[in-house]
Amino acid sequence: MLVIPAIDLKDGRCVRLRQGDMAAETVYSEDVPAVARKWQQGGASLIHVVDLNGAVDGEPRNLPQIEAVMKTVSVKVQVGGGIRTIETVRRYLNAGVSRVVLGTAALTDRAFLEQACKEFPQRILLGLDARDGKVAVKGWTAVSETKAIDLLKDLAGLAISAVIYTDISRDGMLSGPNIPALQEVVEQSAFPVIASGGITRAEDLQAVYALGPRIEGAIVGKALYDGKLDYAAAVAAIGRT
């Protein structure tokens, strides 16, 4: 299981939000490439980058920062937020991004999702963001009536690399992950699962790791930036890099 540090971008800066609220931000750095370099030097083999403005606006808004990150680090980088066209997918992958995350498009534009998976098999991640078990879209500004588990089952035949499951109520709250919800996702998913949201302590990572070999990784954000969790200690907690 990988411990994956997150870099959330808003207005060109590295920030963290509370439950996805764009108005409830904490700014951690103006130098985004330096943050990425820090995680690479700390031993991360994969970094998770999210364009928060893009997620809300429906198109990339922090592309210069993401391209700068790609020129700064040599480890794998996956990117999500505002990727709604195949041209955007191509642009990110051509820039060196390892995988792209499609969330809103998985619910609202199935043809695009299918095209992306066909053109770039195993380089598309499904971003499954849920509030009370239902899929949230458009940077979490709207919640659909579709159950996350139902959407997951519906997409089982696509060449998706993995599913990133985020419980919005836990994101940025340092309250621990929603293990029962993650367990259900692991049991129902045809794809490997990456846990996201609420991971705060080494014990949280151990609880995620205990869900079994279908867990590919765990994304950690606020706890790392606030110093509540040390990256090296996080990796040591599960005995992996």
What is the compact description of this entry?
The chain contains 11 helices and 12 strands.
Note the overall shape: globular
Secondary structure: number of strands: 12
Mean pLDDT: 94
Give the biggest sheet: 8 strands, parallel, barrel
Helix/strand order? EEEHEHHEHEHHEEEHEHEHEHH
CATH topology category name: TIM Barrel
What is the fourth-level CATH superfamily?
Aldolase class I
**Amino- and carboxy-terminal Cα gap:** 8 Å
The Rg value, from CA coordinates, equals 16 Å
Largest beta sheet: strand ordering: 1-4-5-6-7-10-11-12
| Unreliable parts | none
Percent helix: 25-40%
CATH architecture: Alpha-Beta Barrel
Please identify the top-level CATH class. Alpha Beta
Plain-language structure description:
With 241 residues, this protein is α/β, with parallel strands linked by helices. The chain contains 11 helices and 12 strands. The model has no long low-confidence stretch (mean pLDDT 94). The relative contact order is 0.15. The protein has helices at 32-41, 52-57, 63-72, 86-94, 104-108, 110-119, 148-154, 179-188, 202-209, 222-225, 231-238; strands at residues 2-10, 13-18, 21-29, 46-51, 76-80, 99-102, 124-131, 134-137, 142-147, 162-167, 193-196, 215-220. The chain has a single domain (2-238), classed as Aldolase class I (TIM Barrel, Alpha-Beta Barrel). Helices cover 36% and strands 30% of the residues. An 8-stranded parallel barrel has the order 1-4-5-6-7-10-11-12, surrounded by 7 helices.
